[in-house]
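FAQ
Q: What does a multi-component entry look like?
A: The components come first, one per line:
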Amino acid sequence: MTKNSAIERNPVRPTTKSVETRARIIRGALDALETHGIGEVTTRKIAANAKVRLATLHYHFDSKETLLLAVLEDLNASMLARYQEELRNSDDFETHVAELIRSIWRYVERTPEQQFVQLELTLYALRTKGSEWLAAKQYDAYIDVYKRLIVEGRGTQDPALERIGLALGRFILGGIDGLILQSFALRDAADTQAGLEALIVAARDYLRHLLDS
Amino acid sequence: MTKNSAIERNPVRPTTKSVETRARIIRGALDALETHGIGEVTTRKIAANAKVRLATLHYHFDSKETLLLAVLEDLNASMLARYQEELRNSDDFETHVAELIRSIWRYVERTPEQQFVQLELTLYALRTKGSEWLAAKQYDAYIDVYKRLIVEGRGTQDPALERIGLALGRFILGGIDGLILQSFALRDAADTQAGLEALIVAARDYLRHLLDS
DNA sequence: ACTATTTTTGGTCATTTGACTAATTTTTTC
DNA sequence: GAAAAAATTAGTCAAATGACCAAAAATAGT
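Then the predicted structure of the entire assembly, as tokens:
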């Protein structure tokens, strides 16, 4: 870990090629992270995975740390975009929320390794001095998206509704996180399914509770 | 990472001293993990922290991996023991559950670094081939303890009650995990508090739901 | 096509790291 | 209190790793 001369090396006008390579490296890093985990991932593995020389990697990213955090940012952005374009229905409020949760979980089940990596990287960011903001940004973004997906199609934009969406969004996010951890640790499909149903019921009841008060 | 000759080296009759040193190393490892995180922890840091030579560490633990997993086991055992000896009250069922959750959270707030390390180690165990069982054991144990704490003092030991306790235990564990992550990421005391209250309400409603069906 | 800039490459380096051994010291047992 | 077993120690080692540089190659702007 020697000192770094990123500022001088950084290009004034990044090329199209540069952007592509950058993206490829990030993708390679994600692949490497999924198969090896954050503890075993090395710049060489990432470079190999991205079909790029080691020095090229260091040309684009000042350090391994920078790269890993870039992966997390990328992961966040793409996952959020995914949710954004989903779900345009307009059921009954409670059904809508239930469907949202199911939709979220369907995505989680389709990308378990990604979820795992994201968890690892979130903890990594929290551990990395000066990068805690990334974790905060991530959670803020998630909560915001969840809120919007909840409120969506309700017609009004009552500030009270916004508050409810926010609270419910936080609740659901927490529930999903907890469920992810349990499903990873216990690997029991039936229990996971039951947990999901429990979360749906709980979210519904919590919604009622919020609407009452 | 050469191969290891632990079997031959292991003592036939471990001494009192040995047990003490072992415990000291585990404690040192925990300290090191708390301050450095799993990504930066080294055997040397651990040894220094435990005031033990590096070779001594390797005498007691076949490998870094073994040691880290031992830390996780120790952490689980001690935290569970902590919960066991707590809470002997016998309120109304709903109040009892609410108090339980508050009690759990109080402990979490008293030991944030430990919670963080435990999370890191759980992910580490899940990543470490052949050690996934440790994570499973951990969660099973937690769920079981939660279940017992929930059912405790209800008088009957109806199998239906057991089922309810189990489901509610899983639910609460997930909720706590989710809340821990959010509180770490967002670092907002008020939001965390609100999240806790939400969990309590949700658990109460979920309990009612379980009792109804 | 020429030039300036960006990008890539091959090769190098210091350091860290986990693991290991042989010898010494401490503890236990009889 | 002597022998045996256990525990500790100092010192060594190979491998891995992140970072870096100087030079070559590719690309873009004019």
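Q: Is there any commentary attached?
A: Sometimes. For this entry: Residues 183 and 193 of chain B are 9 Å apart (CA to CA).
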